[in-house]
Specification:
The protein is α/β, with parallel strands linked by helices and 376 residues long. The chain is built from 14 helices and twelve strands. The chain starts with a strand and ends with a helix. The protein binds 4'-deoxy-4'-aminopyridoxal-5'-phosphate.
């Protein structure tokens, strides 16, 4: 079989060698970062250096960074910690946001999956209870980028707090928390070449939240528990490198566009979801008409190419995508959609290999359209 090709970077992206070294070095040392002796202070230094690097990635101050166990916990801390009784979340949020905000009001999206800001304003105007609005920066399934600055401006006009899940954007898209105007922002290390199991919530000065995990006073009292120093050190190293190499995404975008042009040319009935909106440079959500996404995932896997169906983050099973449903995509279309996500290890040949494999699967698996059958 050909060399395995990993094109599922939105699920997790390979650990960067700098992060691997930082993790190994930190694991080789000992000390609790809360201890006042030299061993403890050395561990504390690793955390504070990482805090600076992670803050820089989001244009934030180091003091505003609260390390967590990942994006899921950062989202949970923001959404539960804010303690708002009225919560409004977009229809296309990650499951970790939806699960933390059961009973929340849904902000609708348009056919490209972009949040409808006038609809949000109308919802905010309905009640005067202090509200929390949560809208992601870019979607994990389609890569569609949300008008977060406009969302935050509208929400603040109605006195609401604003949270943004930027897990898929950090390192892929230059942004600054002040430009977005949000009060809280979630990040996850393993989406940018850091280790799985660490992330951060950035809480802007003046935003009051309560901890969800209580105990020791770590992380300014907002997240108790001895810090995962080695993972945090790896997060910091990956964040610094991702920040420096941000320009590489312009090149990656050309690979993504090449794939999409190839697919559109080979199969005029194929669909590319969210294509009409600004998107992350690395993500493509493609429907191969008439071929179930599970079948495609397995067929690509047999050729050595790893892609995914929808988010497929948690259980490994494929359910209907709530993201595509919210965009008004009928079940049949959504059921044939796969996600291809490129990353910092992807090269032009990888994109060409995927495109060729897509065409060959399409020729083999897609039901023949009547005119194609006649021609055959
Ligand atoms: N939000 C988004 C948009 C994500 O894609 C993910 C990861 N799939 C998460 C949150 C959760 O992050 P983590 O895996 O670090 O818990």
């Amino acid at each position: 079989m050909a060399e395995p090709l990993y094109l599922d970077h939105n699920a997790t992206t390979p650990l960067r060698p700098v992060a691997q070294r930082a993790i190994a070095d930190a694991f080789a040392a000992t000390g609790n970062p809360s201890s006042v002796h030299g061993f403890g202070r050395a561990q504390r230094r690793l955390i504070e250096d990482a805090r600076e690097a992670v803050a820089a990635l989001a244009g934030a101050s180091a003091e505003s960074v609260v390390f967590t166990s990942g994006g899921t916990e950062a989202n949970t801390l923001a959404l539960l910690g804010a303690g708002c009784r009225r919560v409004l979340v977009s229809a296309v949020e990650h499951d970790s946001v939806l699960a933390a905000t059961e009973g929340a009001v849904t902000i609708p999206v348009d056919g490209n999956g972009v949040v409808e800001v006038p609809a949000l304003e109308a919802l905010l105007a309905e009640a005067h209870t202090p509200a929390l609005v949560s809208v992601m920066l870019a979607n994990n399934e389609t890569g569609v980028i949300q008008p977060v600055a406009a969302v935050a401006e509208a929400a603040h006009r109605f006195g609401a707090l604003v949270h943004c899940d930027a897990v898929q954007c950090a390192g892929k898209l230059a942004f600054a928390i002040d430009d977005l105007g949000v009060d809280m922002l979630s990040l996850s290390a393993h989406k940018l070449g850091g280790p799985q199991g660490t992330g951060a919530l950035i809480v802007r000065a003046g935003t009051e939240i309560s901890p969800v995990i209580r105990g020791g006073g770590q992380e300014r009292g907002l997240r108790a528990g001895t810090e995962a120093v080695a993972l945090i050190a790896g997060f910091g190293a990956a964040a610094a490198e991702a920040d420096e190499t941000g320009s590489a995404w312009a090149e990656i975008e050309t690979y993504r566009d090449r794939i999409e042009a190839h697919v559109a040319n080979a199969a005029p009935d194929a669909r590319i979801f969210g294509r009409g909106a600004p998107r992350l440079a690395n993500t493509s959500c493609l429907a191969m008409p008439g071929v179930a996404n599970e079948v495609q995932v397995m067929a690509f896997d047999l050729t050595g190419i790893a892609i995914s169906a929808g988010a497929a983050c948690s259980s490994g099973t494929v359910g209907p995508s709530h993201v595509l449903a919210a965009m008004g995509v009928p079940e049949a279309g959504a059921g044939s959609a796969i996600r291809v996500s490129l990353g910092w290890t992807t090269c032009a040949d990888d994109a060409d290999r995927f495109a060729a494999a897509w065409t060959s699967l399409y020729e083999r698996l897609a039901p023949r359209a009547p005119d194609r059958t006649r021609a055959a």
